[in-house]
Amino acid sequence: MSVAARSPAVRSVSLSRPWTARMGVPRVRMAVQSNLVSIAPMLTKLQRDCATPLSVLRHVADAMADDMRAGLAVDGGSDLKMILSYVDRLPTGNEKGLFYALDLGGTNFRVLRVQLGGKDERVIATEFDQVSIPQDLMFGTTEDLFNFIASGLAKFAQNEGGKFHLAQGRMREIGFTFSFPVKQTSIDAGILIKWTKGFAVSGTAGKDVVACLNEAMERQGLNMRVSALVNDTVGTLAGARYWDYDVMVAVILGTGTNACYMERVDVIPKLQGLKSTSGRTIVNTEWGAFSNGLPLTEYDREMDAESINPGEQIFEKTISGMYLGEIVRRVLVKMDEAGALFGECVPEKLSTPFVLGTPHISTMQQDNSKDLQAVGSILYDVAGVNSDLSARRIVVEVCDTVAKRGGRLAGAGIVGILQKMEEDSKGTISGKRTVVAMDGGLYEHYPQYRRYLQDAVTELLGSELSKNVVIEHSKDGSGIGAALLAATNSKYEH
Ligand code: BGC
């Protein structure tokens, strides 16, 4: 997420610059002032449209809880898919041996191995590798994408050694974190419903992604077995709960967003008699598809209409890392068109969709310098615009407005889940400590966003109850979590 703020190649047009008599009528000053006259109402409107007062937060939390219930009743019952994960046994700490994890969910994919030592030694060693996914593979064929993944895995597996030992006669087992909506049919199989987060790989939707991986591994001559297919939220929950038994919910706030939680099987009507030995199972809400009562703006609607999945993933498009920067960019373009925020005509760079990333808007909000130098540099380097101090201040306000709405709505979503759990099992949060394991670059690298999220949780729950709810950053927990679930679901005894 870090964006280097280079030294400013910025033409500064400061409003407070002293004017000499010889310069005559301060044209720049007049132009900027009149610009502000047309831009200020746009900013006010944006802030009004993005507002998340307590009443809006409450509505979102209630609607989230209602949609969860409707999605648990029957498939297609609400926007929330409420996918059954088939994870009803969580790691106990007794797991032993060497396990792999493969994590595909965003612009990178990761491979990881872990040597587990049972109750006493726990995690003896881990090693991982990360490869970024070339853009063309995100729009290519299923075979090409899975070939790329399998070859990365094969290379990584070749270098096994040191503290990592596979017990004799065993096959290497993998926990496969696949962070897209998948209809699980068992712990080790699931059909892709649709791609999200900008992926548009042809021919995968409707297919079992484990079968796709197995075929690619075969083509590579790689002899490994997927023993658990999990969403990244599920991996995060399993990984965090290995260390802390109070973890009940996991949330991802990164490129995309999602949440899962521990549910009682007897309150899942659509389970239709399927048994779970523990009486509980993890449900993957796929809350990115939530849409009920969100405060949306013209910028959100236009971004959605032009996206590769219009009408879908509306909560994700409002709160997650892939989109916040793009929403800000769209606001700035409109402000520039209407009020020449940066100059006469909108530069090409600024007109390029997704050129401004969420890491950029986060970095701009961290700029405490008097003249907002880092803001100026980013605007110049990334968007190709010159800015004066008043324009930079407006940009920061826009970033804050969009991040505030996102963080507060994410907080309301979390409270919605806790509310649903409390309604069915009194005492879930009112009587004890409950941990929400959180992962994702947006949460990790955007302090203001994090604070807004926490504020919303506290406002909704009240200061007493919110003390029971601990939001804990579980960095990269999903990889280890998936490997642990591969161990729990191993075909060999441990
Ligand atoms: C996917 C989820 C995933 C989330 C976070 C969303 O776009 O639909 O399955 O958990 O991103 O990675």
UniProtKB/TrEMBL annotation:
Pathways per UniProt: Carbohydrate degradation; glycolysis; D-glyceraldehyde 3-phosphate and glycerone phosphate from D-glucose: step 1/4; Carbohydrate metabolism; hexose metabolism
Pfam families reported in the protein's UniProt record: Hexokinase_1, Hexokinase_2
Keyword ATP-binding: yes
Enzyme Commission number, as recorded: 2.7.1.-
Span of domain Hexokinase C-terminal: 249-487
Keyword Coiled coil among record annotations: no
Gene3D superfamilies with a match to the protein in the record: 3.30.420.40, 3.40.367.20
Domain Hexokinase N-terminal: 43-242
Principal EC category: transferase
Keyword field: ATP-binding, Glycolysis, Kinase, Nucleotide-binding, Transferase
One GO term of the biological process aspect: glucose metabolic process
GO cellular component, one term: mitochondrion
GO molecular function, one term: fructokinase activity
Similarity comment: Belongs to the hexokinase family.
Name the UniProt record assigns to this protein: Phosphotransferase
The species this protein was found in: Escallonia herrerae
